[in-house]
Description:
By secondary structure, this protein is α+β, with helices and mostly antiparallel strands. The chain is 47% helix and 9% strand.
Amino acid sequence: xxxxxxxxxxRLVCASTSSTLRSPARAAARTLTSPPATRPATTSCQISSPxxxxxxxxxxxxCKRTAWISSANFAAPHGIGCISRSSISxxxxxxxxxxxxxxxxxxxxVPGSTRVKRAxxxxxxxxxxxxxxxxxxxxxxxxxxxxxxxxxxRCAGGWVRDKLLGRDSLDIDIALDTMLGKDFAELVNQHLSxxxxxxxxxxxxxxxxxxxxxxxxxxxxxxxxxxxxxxxRSETYAQGSRIPTMEFGTPEQDALRRDFTINSLFxxxxxxxxxxxxxxxxxxxxxxxxRTPLSPTETFLDDPLRVxxxxxxxxxxxxxxxxxxxxxxxxxxxxxxxxQKVSKERVGAELEGMFxxxxxxxxxxxxxxLSLFPVVFAxxxxxxKALPADxxxxxxxxxxxxxxxxxxxxxxxxxxxxxFLLMAALLLPLRGCVVLGPKNKPIPASAAIxxxxxxxxxxxxxxxxxLHETAQQFLDIHQQVAAMDxxxxxxxxxNAPEGLRVQLGMVIxxxxxxxxxxxxxxxxxxxxxxxxxxxxxxxxxxxxAAPSSSTGQRGVTAAGGNxxxxxxxxxxxxxxxxxxxxxxxxxxxxxxxxxPLLDGKQVQALLELQKPGPELGKAMGEALNWQLAxxxxxxxxxxxxVKEWWQKHKA
Length: 651
């Protein structure tokens, strides 16, 4: 009854005559329509999903089989082209809800997951190929006809996922079932040559597990698209290593060895269908769940980097971690393996994907909630021990407030600027913390984290330190500007002392084109979560001022405490607005691009100095200070001021 309720108003099309239904539901299933006589058009595909269909209370079970779904007529409430335990459970829940009079808005999160009500990206019922993809696949099928044995071509992983989400993707991986990628690349070139088309030599990329390349790959450009050619494989891991032993495998083995069900989908180019060998990929994509094909603990211990990939995908696609995945990610053994088995470069690459993605704050919130923050942003044990237990929560809240400020102010940042600002905000509570670097030289903890723990560029580390330094200077300037008489920025500019103008100009020149990042970070310093930690002077105060810890509350969503208060964001926006208005009123917005009115040779000649030295440096500094205090001043006025200053200085 439950099965027929679920299928009511839908048409299920059975794929092949080679498999038959073996269950008490056979009679009902036989009433469904036979498979269409013709294949779908080349611009779309059907969904093929060999899944274990869900068992109802009466223990009705259907065999594992491939089902063809007519997308025009099938409208299952969960998943595309598959019926799963969750689908039948959902149907039962909907019936119970209907009978009890509950509304849809009262629906609780899916049991066994951390589902929260969020806007999910729509999932298509079909894969729509663009012209380049149609041409590419036609070429590949032509080459496959030259193979000595029948070869099935499948697009694997991210391309299939993105196409079902309605997104174009250039990440095209072709999985081959009977041959190596480099051998198939030769067949492709033979086919292109026979048609008088351009032939390109395939680049063979050797296996490199440290770069997540576990098998030899042939890379080739066809019809303007780059593709990677690789054979289907199965893999096993040796204890203590994230480098697997690879063997030829079946499509199902290849799907099961992948990280998550949403990345385990195949597009069968020969048949024009999407294949879901895990039985959950399409449904999880529709429901927004990150799930592993096999045991999540085993999956993460085999390759701990997958923990960070789970976080990145959850944030990128607005998905939630299935509860067992979340439990495994928070497992101490898994976290220890992440710190020991995975190179810092790979950790940094995943972090860069999170920061450059659509939801960097949510990524960090999830890292903090899973207790992964100190594993990823690792510090020396002695330094780590000195930090309060909830410092990671304070760090994430600083980042969340900064991100909210950027949105509230309507500021558009490019990827690099956003990464600079958000990383500096994330590490803001650690700005007073110092660790020993190379040659036992003390360096800021934030620089050590960026350089060593995640192996980002030196430029990223230097910018984090510089933003911490200049944010405090901007905040000091704001306090002086706010204390001035007059509410109008122009009036304040007229009354501003020269020293204040110089102070603001010098800070802007330190950050150059990124000066507004420092102005954005400045008001965050006034928030409770930005209290410094990791120093003897600040530990007590920081612990008292820091927000309450979320320890023991894993599973609480961002709305449960990580989101900045609206009043706090408004105050921060006012501070930033005041600083921006002051820079404009003082005429200093572009001062970082100014060429000095007087260069060294001119100052040396003006003051009749015999040779360069400390005195020349002081004079040049005074000339620049005057220029910042008088943006509209002339060369002659600057020369006169320097002469007068020099006479007083000598006296």
